[in-house]
Amino acid sequence: MQLLWLLLLSFITTVTPQSLNSSSSLVWGAFRPNLYFGLRPRIPQSLMTGLVWFGTQDYQSFTKARHACDQGDGLDGYTWTQFDAREGGIQVLKDTENNVKVTTELLMVDGGEHGGSWAARIKGEPINEGKPSRTSFVFYAGLEGMGGLELETDEDENGIDGPIVLTGSTPELDDFTIRIVDGPNNKVFSDGPFSDVFAKRIGKTHFSGFRVPQGNIWAAKEFIIKEIAHNAGKAVQDVKGSNSHPDPSFTLQLSDETLSGNNLLAFQKFFDGKFQFDVFYESRSARKNLNAVTLDEGIAAFSASFNQRFHETFPVPDSPNRDALEAFSQAITSNLLGGIGYFYGTSIIDPSFSYDWDDDSSPAESDDDNRGRKTEGPRLTEPEALLTATPSRSFFPRGFYWDEGFHLLHIGEWDNDLSLEILKNWIDLIDDDGWVAREQILGEEARSKVPAQFQAQVPSFANPPTLTMAVTAFIKRLRRHAGPTDQDLGLDFGAGGFQLPLSTSQSSNGNRYLENRDLALSFLQSIYQPLKRHYEWFRRTQRGQLKQYGRKARSRTEAYRWRGRSEKHVLTSGLDDYPRAPPHIGELHLDLLSWMGFFSRTMREIAEFIGEEEDRLNYASIEKAIIQNIDDLHWSEDSQMYCDVGVDDDDESYHVCHKGYISLFPFLLSLLPPDSPRLGSVLDLLSDPKHLWSPFGLRSLSASHPEFGTGENYWKGPIWIQMNYLALQALNETYASHVGPYQERARLIYTELRQNVIDNVFKEYERTGYVWEQYDANTGEGRRSHPFTGWTSLVTLILSQKY
Ligand SMILES: *[C@@H]1O[C@H](CO)[C@@H](O)[C@H](O)[C@H]1NC(C)=O
Ligand SMILES: *[C@@H]1O[C@H](CO)[C@@H](O)[C@H](O)[C@H]1NC(C)=O
């Protein structure tokens, strides 16, 4: 532990203040998306802020104080309705149990050399005007690592009247001030039994200081709740012997005490009805004084420019409910952006873990990637940092490899440079072997959300390689940005064919890498080698057996198998419980071969773009070999579909055919040529209501399959939006746009599928207040975790037809 601590300290001191320029450099953000509202800078150990609240209409509500997003809290919806990582955002939280609609507004303010400043406004109003809406809000600031935090305002044992001022300093943020200021019209509850006893404390801001052990600021709520409960116990002593209780707002209060060496300071306010208070964080080097007018004007201006930019970036088709659809589209995009988090900490890896059927290190496989590691047990890695979007702020508030490729498609359309920044963070996690853990559970806070048996990551396990989507999308945008002339010629950076755009209206808005050819090229070059290592890791470690079991295929190398599957699950494939063959060292997985075809193709495009000609030829030949082997190994003439391949008791190879998403993979990833005679069968399967077609989108498993809707029913029927996005992309870009016998049919299916997906996700959002992880295969109802503004937010791209 001592060693680890020293390591952390040495890491901190290597972050130079020069790298923290202004908020347009994305130092500060709502980078704690697991909280309803919380900010931190993109610095490993630093200032962390957050918000805790509860209702004071009764004593029970206190036991359900809100802090980390939790489905059990039963909020009727919470989402950033507008959000931009560089400018700020507006979030609406509907806490019906406490009869309060809370709005959090955030404004990033540039300036100085230490990451800029920000201002936040927390306001609330009753949802039902006819009922009481009594609440208590606690805002806290805690410090990890080196530095100090002081309460400047004079303390009073009965609480503080008027604004609160804190000062602090850290090596990276330098000196800063935090002020908490009430709005003009707040009311408090001051009637009822014992109001005379507590009169001196009513209407004040209460506070407490804590000395929290290093690494525990994330658990601030526990310290705060314990302190309030403890203090309430004492307050109740004052009125002992009476039959009636004092109002909860008189007793559930912080103690109004601080300690020397506090590293967590909490401030608590009580409201009756509508309220508002502001928090201003001012970096001293910015020399800017923020006030309520900054927020009034800043938020209005932000909101107007966001509307305008959204309108241009993600146009919503005309329809009778266009306005509602656009608000919905803004909300899912904003919550994806507001769901970006910064994580820092150790993770657990277990190199020793292996299933029997994965132990295939025969000489022919030349599988030497695990050399010398098999004997180690689970261990903690060194701390790592990651800026990443999160699939679900409540249920999956951490980085997921296969989700991230989809997130970055969406983020990149809004803020190209932000998507590259996040991509670079992931690329930096690729280890010397070329491996990246599929789930990034960094630090104690992240681990607190994951059951122990799922915490360890195994360095021989893969996940669908979606990250390169972000790279090819960037290349597509570069081509678009360069203008039609360059597009016709093919964009050649080396020959200087890049044309600077005339309009730079968004140059501070995340397009620097689109506008500056040198930046773009050096970025692509900087990620190329690690990506290549990653690609080679896949080819080496996930290879399938081809020469055995009498298999015939044109390519003698291209066959693949997911490692790390169990009897019932192939978690690494991302399609956890989808039916597969019984585990066998000789089985082959169609989806993985397809992903490898996709990976080869994207590597080819990147190599072409940066002029790695030899590599390009190599990737192209592997891509071709994979396309051939998809047919040679995985097409079942009997079933007229693409299938996995298993090995039976007589050591014979056979097709394992379960109609569903797996069968569609060569089509989903556009590896099936538009003139393939097999395309007709694929389209039959997906458009047949007895199988995959539903009025709500494509089902994961055929409705006629014996396992449809059974077991845990995760990938045995339910509708997933990212898979529907892949289908729509393939239809739009490949099958409806290339001449072939099925072009017209592809066009019709595209139009209808797109409408179905949009209509259902939108309808469920209106009905429930959330977008969901998946949708019921029979009814279309939202299922499982929510809000799920990870890849379900792709509906914005579907609406605006960005593929
Ligand atoms: C910081 O800002 C200054 C002036 O605005 C600029 O010249 C410099 O390049 C910036 N540094 C970084 C790392 O962005
Ligand atoms: C595919 O999307 C583009 C916009 O990106 C759209 O113009 C086109 O009509 C779509 N194709 C079909 C078949 O609808």
Automatic annotation (TrEMBL):
Bias (Basic and acidic residues) ranges: 369-382
Any one GO biological process: oligosaccharide metabolic process
GO cellular component annotations of the record: endoplasmic reticulum membrane
Cross-referenced Pfam families: Glyco_hydro_63, Glyco_hydro_63N
Signal sequence, start to end: 1-17
Region (Disordered): 359-383
Cell location: Endoplasmic reticulum membrane
Catalytic reaction equation(s): N(4)-(alpha-D-Glc-(1->2)-alpha-D-Glc-(1->3)-alpha-D-Glc-(1->3)-alpha-D-Man-(1->2)-alpha-D-Man-(1->2)-alpha-D-Man-(1->3)-[alpha-D-Man-(1->2)-alpha-D-Man-(1->3)-[alpha-D-Man-(1->2)-alpha-D-Man-(1->6)]-alpha-D-Man-(1->6)]-beta-D-Man-(1->4)-beta-D-GlcNAc-(1->4)-beta-D-GlcNAc)-L-asparaginyl-[protein] + H2O = N(4)-(alpha-D-Glc-(1->3)-alpha-D-Glc-(1->3)-alpha-D-Man-(1->2)-alpha-D-Man-(1->2)-alpha-D-Man-(1->3)-[alpha-D-Man-(1->2)-alpha-D-Man-(1->3)-[alpha-D-Man-(1->2)-alpha-D-Man-(1->6)]-alpha-D-Man-(1->6)]-beta-D-Man-(1->4)-beta-D-GlcNAc-(1->4)-beta-D-GlcNAc)-L-asparaginyl-[protein] + beta-D-glucose
Family statement drawn from the similarity comment of this UniProt entry: Belongs to the glycosyl hydrolase 63 family.
Protein name from the UniProt record: Mannosyl-oligosaccharide glucosidase
Organism in which the protein naturally occurs: Russula ochroleuca
Lineage summary: Eukaryota, Fungi, Dikarya, Basidiomycota, Agaricomycotina
